Amino acid sequence: MKQPAAEPAGASLAIAMASRRGGRDRNEDACGHWGWGKSAITGPVCCVLADGAGGHGAGDVASQVAVSTVLHAFAERPACDPRRARELIDLANQAVVAGQSTSEATRDMRSTLVVWLGDAAQASAAWGHSGDSRLYCFRGGRLLTRTRDHSLYQAMIDAGLAEVGNLRGHPQRNILTACLGSSEQFEADVVAANHELLPGDAFLLCSDGFWEPLEDGMMEAALQEAADVQSWIDALEQSIARVARAGQDNYSAIGVWYGSLKETPPGLVGRQYSSISNSTEP
Description:
five-stranded antiparallel sheet, 6 helices, alpha+beta, 13 strands, eight-stranded antiparallel sheet, single chain
C-alpha cells in the first residue's frame, strides 16, 4: 500500500475507532482508515467498516477482505467523490465473491460495508454502503442524515407494513436484502453528490451491534458533551456496556470530526436538516 503524502497544515479531520468482540466467540467486524497524520488529517482520507457473516469463521474473513480491499485501492488513487465510493464498494464485493471460491469454509461468506471518503483541504465528503452497517452525519450536534438499511424490516417500513420505532427489537431486523458477496444483482447506495463539510460536522460509521442499543438522541447527547472524537466514541461504548446482555453482538465504530462542535457556524447549532438523497447510479 502506498504511504500518504504529507499535506500542509490547515483544516483537518480527527478519527477514532473501536471494535469489540462483545459476548461472541470471535469478532466478525473489521474497520480501518487511510490518511495522512495521526491526530490531524489534512488530505484525502478513507474510512471503512464491515460486518461479516457466513458461519464456520468465514465472517471475519469476509469483513477483513472487504476492508483491506477498499483501503489498498484508495491508497492507489485517493479521490473523494461518489464515483470513487461506488468503485471501492464494487471492488470490495468482487474481492469477497472471489474469496468464496477459495475453500468450503468461505463459500457462503458475506459482509456489510460502509465507506466514507473525505478531504479536509477541499471541505468535501462522499459515502456509500451495502447492508445494515450505517453512516450517521451530524451537524451542530444534531443528526442531519443517516444511511438506509438494506434489510427486510426496512423494506417492510418502506411498504407501510411496519413501524420505525419497532426496528431495534424486531426478530427480522437482521435479515439483509443486500450485502457484499453477490455476483449478480448486487445493491449498494451512494450519495448522489459530494457533501460540503462545515466546521463541527461529525460522522459515525458503525455496525448493527453498535447502533442497535443507541437511540439517535443518545448519539446526539454524547456528541454535544464530548471534548473530542475519541471521547465521543468512548461515551457511546460506555452506553452500550450499560445495556449489554449475554451474547452481545460484535460492535464496531469509526468516528470522524471535521474541526470541533464549537466551530459550528452561528445559526446552525441545533438546527434540523432533511436527509441527503442516496442513489444507486455510478
